[in-house]
Amino acid sequence: MAKIKTKWVCQNCGYETPKYIGKCPDCGNWGTLVEETEVKTPAAVQSVVIDDSPICLINEIEITESIRIPTGFEEFDRVLGGGLVQGSLVLLAGDPGIGKSTLILQTAGNICGQNKKLIYVCAEESGSQVKLRAKRLNVNTDNLYVYSQTNLEAVINQLDTIKPDVLVIDSIQSVYTSCITSSSGSVSQIRECTNILMDIAKNKNITVIIIGHVTKDGNIAGPKVLEHMVDTVIYFEGDKYKSQRLLRAIKNRFGSTNEIGVFNMVDNGLVEVVNPSELFMKERTENAAPGSVIIAAKEGTRALLVEVQALVGSTSYPSPRRVSTGIEYNRLLQIIAVLEKRIGLNLSKHDVYVNTIGGIDIEEPAADLGIALAIATCFRDVVVDSDCVIIGEISLSGEIRNVSNIEKRIYEAQKLGFKKAIIPKLNKKLPDGFNIEVIQVSRLSEAIKVCVYKK
Q: Can you give the pLDDT at residue 4?
């Protein structure tokens, strides 16, 4: 007889307890514990076929060029590290309406165009609704199977019949397995379904892509162990009121997590942006206002030119506001402290707002000098030369530290028509072939003097 077990599970963090308590001791939230009855039978545990392949030495394993499946999007392949790895489990998460299903359906059409079979399990839509979206996206192929199903065992039964190369689950919060009696979307269901899908990916060598929802805090809904179980975790970001979309990997066992993919949402789907710098710079005017500078950021192997804007205004409140969008908040406080101590700017009675244009988050310290100059020029009502790009890291003593990949950053600025670059003095001299004026500075005060002129 099957053993019945009752437990209380926090729907926010996955904490389990045998009895009800009002506040979760793990995440600290109130009223998030829900009673779940878990029923496990030997048949349910053995529902997935176990691979009995023999053990072998690592030197005997052969890797062919077909180990990766191209998605048809260079930006998507860049984030994945070269394409989808066969037998991998990929989690794609993002806000509602951001375009997750659109991206996956377009990718499915591209994969099927390579004579690959793909099953698209639409647990939240009917087959006709998926067909309607595929028609709008111009996805027309004979190798794409659509299965409107929420029961995971029914999906597994179709695998031996169709023998797909790729399996898509849209979404993991909507499917359920019969071996767990709790409702779909619960912590137990998400964990068990992901575990079964992981066994399918590894034992049957099928690439599995699961789409996940996110909470209001921006975290993936379900237990945190979900991100540990999968091979790759990708976030699809962007403002749903704007057309720009960013694809970013926060975990990747088969590639780097520093790469980003840039897309543009149009009427007939997503279009990849080959040169993101032009996208982020297209609305910049020649006569920039005080507090506007251009920085050269580095995202993986790609250099991006991004506009940073700062606004400094006086306040009558005893505690001035510090607001940052796209910039780490603690990094902003550190730069303001350096400006007050080393430059003499009295910002204690002024609100400071800093924003990056285009919705991209800048995390690397090479943007410090650009942020500091944006704040200083707005405070003093002067303008940075519109043909100048700023690169440099600021230390607490006000010195400008060297940055990596300086050649790629300046080459990107030169390609977009910039005529001047402010870089750290500690960086080595650039090789011949650059047609741009390079000014090397060693301190923050020196950088302010050489790159601004009065309005």
A: 64
